[in-house]
TrEMBL record:
The lineage of its organism: Bacteria, Bacillati, Actinomycetota, Actinomycetes, Kitasatosporales. GO terms for biological process: regulation of DNA-templated transcription. GO terms for molecular function: phosphorelay response regulator activity; transcription cis-regulatory region binding. This is Response regulator. One of its GO terms (cellular component) is cytosol. Residues 130-228 form the OmpR/PhoB-type domain.
Length: 230
């Protein structure tokens, strides 16, 4: 059972989705606009959001960015536009997966199961290992999904934590952006910008800058590594 928010303005598509998801014993709420969706996710905890891109009030990518501003909940994009460039951009903007309309219920179930599996794996910390990792003054606890720097808790998003934990598992090792994209984002494709943006957020939370790195070292054109400061 998952708590699902369906964001869809087409009544016909919406009721079909609700019926199918309810039959599959998920708890479903639904709204017809992006602003209602933002209000819902701010108030209710969901396991997954199914987001139609053609909403009456906001452009889909705007809606996605605003959602990402307030929550890490997995988002599956539903789009009628079979536009690869657009889909890649949305995946980079934080969508977890996408479906092209019209899609079958089997297709939807498969995508939902994959997204939920991924988010549960990272939420449970069952993979990567559950041991507490220490790199200099950094302590990373994958089981409790908590990180501290010099004894002070860091307030990290799901992605920032996954990124930090992945690098902390291999301290001093340069990891290519492509590998981060595949292992942390579980995407076979995408651009380096996504990673650079998350790295810069993480860096800020670690209280350092690219010009004066302490833990996070970026090697231009090669990758990034985490190591204790000298
Ligand atoms: Ca629509």
């Amino acid at each position: 059972m998952a708590r699902v928010l369906v964001v869809e303005d087409d009544q016909f598509v919406r009721s079909a989705l609700i019926r199918h998801l309810t039959d599959a014993s998920h708890a479903v709420r639904s709204v017809g606009t992006a602003l209602e969706a933002l209000r819902e996710v701010a108030q209710v905890g969901f396991d997954v959001v199914i987001l139609d891109l053609g909403l009456p009030d906001l452009d889909g990518s705007e809606a996605l960015k605003m959602l990402r501003g307030i929550t890490d909940v997995p988002v599956i994009i539903a789009t009628a536009r079979d536009d690869e460039a657009e889909i890649v951009r949305l995946l980079n903007d934080g969508a977890d997966d996408y479906l092209t309309k019209p899609f079958s219920v089997e297709h939807l179930s498969a995508r939902m199961a994959a997204v939920l599996r991924r988010s549960r794996v990272s939420a449970n910390g069952s993979e990567p290992p559950s041991r507490v990792m220490r790199v200099g003054g950094l302590t990373i606890d994958p089981l409790r999904r908590q990180a501290e720097l010099d004894g002070v808790a860091l307030d990290l998003t799901r992605r920032e934590f996954d990124l930090l934990a992945f690098l902390a598992e291999r301290p001093g090792v340069v990891v290519a952006r492509k590998e981060l994209l595949a292992e942390v984002w579980q995407q076979a494709y995408g651009d380096d910008q996504t990673i650079d943006v998350h790295l810069s957020w993480l860096r800020r939370k670690l209280g350092e800058t690219a010009a004066k790195p302490r833990y996070l070292h970026t090697l231009r054109g090669v990758g990034v590594k985490l190591e204790p400061p000298l």
